[in-house]
Amino acid sequence: MFKTTVENLVDHLQQDMHISENSLVWLHSGIVGLGIIKGGVETITEAFSRILPQGALVIPSFTYSWCNAEVYDPFTTECPDMGGYGKVAWKDKRFKRNSNPNFAISVMDQTSDKHVEKSLLLDETKWTCFGDGSVFDQMHRLSSEMPGKVVLLGGAHNDVVFRSTFLHYVEEKIAVPYRYLKIFKNPQNSKETVNQLVRFISKDEYNKVNGNKPLTYSFPIKERYSKLGEDLIKNKMILQSPFGYSTTRTVSILTLCDWLENKLKQEPEYLLR
User: Fold this and answer.
1) Any idea what the Cα angle at residue 222 is, between residues 29 and 80, rounded to 5°?
2) pLDDT score for 159
3) Distance CA 142, CA 52 (A)
4) What would the DSSP string read from start to end of 260-272?
5) Amino acid 222: pLDDT
6) Hey, is 228 helix, strand or coil?
7) What pLDDT, on a 0 to 100 scale, did the predictor assign at position 219?
């Protein structure tokens, strides 16, 4: 049985995945592919803490609270859908969580001036999930100053070569035709709202937003990411290396966003292929 330790995970992330000490990492994590994790899931946090002495680790802490008309509290609301690591890691005192009620993130910032934390915890990140000012917009901007990377570890999203929440940021940026902005309200104060890019789930919903524009797809709409993975490999934009019982994958945030933005401008329904 493969055993994941702080030491062998640090070696893998540094030597195989080329994550430098000042990187900004957006992590999608699984634990099944890591075998037996010596020390429990905190081992993952500790490994990143060691390899990022001047960098930052950001993890999904999504709750979808206002989607479900539920109250959100960044200090107490659980995120049970975030997997074996994500659903508990945000409670580590090294992380701080932002106030987005649907797509919250938690950040462990080890930069000397805490500039990543300051950017991702800005009040404006509360009001949009993927648009201008969102945490994904902030991470994209920060990646021009430090090496920003999307990392898939431990079997995360292993149904395809690559997918990430970051893709929705690019989809909103170019206004793909199969998604639209939906407003969710604070169940305790209807004046507070958050904008979220969502898929059309029915023809009626599509017609309500777009009128009777011609349709080129069926409902419910689902992105299919196999072509994206093929193109990332073909264009040598993705780094892959085995670890434990899965393959770790990483893509530059700048490369991913810039390439996908251009691709979607040419083929707006590219991710549906």
Assistant:
1) 35
2) 86
3) 15
4) HHHHHHH-TTGGG
5) 84
6) helix
7) 84
What 8-state DSSP symbol labels residue 128?
B
Contact predicate 152/28, CB 8 Å? yes
What is the residue extent of each domain of the chain? 3-161+227-263
Tokens of 217: 């797809």
What amino acid occupies position 118? K
- Torsion region of 169: left, alpha or beta (phi above 0 gives left; psi -120 to 50 gives alpha): alpha
- Residues pairing with 179 in the sheet: 199
Phi and psi of 175, rounded to 5°?
55, 65
Positions of the chain with pLDDT under 50: none
The reported pLDDT for the residue numbered 217 is: 75
In the chain, the DSSP E strands lie at: 3-4, 24-29, 36-37, 56-60, 96-97, 105-109, 148-153, 179-186, 189-199, 238-243, 246-252
Q: What is the pLDDT of residue 18?
A: 98
Q: What is the per-residue pLDDT for 31?
A: 94
The two beta strands, 179-186 and 148-153, are: unpaired
Please report the pLDDT score of residue 191 as a whole number: 93
pLDDT of residue 98: 96
Vertex 255, ends 195 and 226: CA angle to 5°? 75
Q: What angle do CA 56, 101, 167 make, to 5 degrees?
A: 60
Q: CB–CB of 58/120 below 8 Å? A: yes
CB 199 within 8 A of CB 178: yes
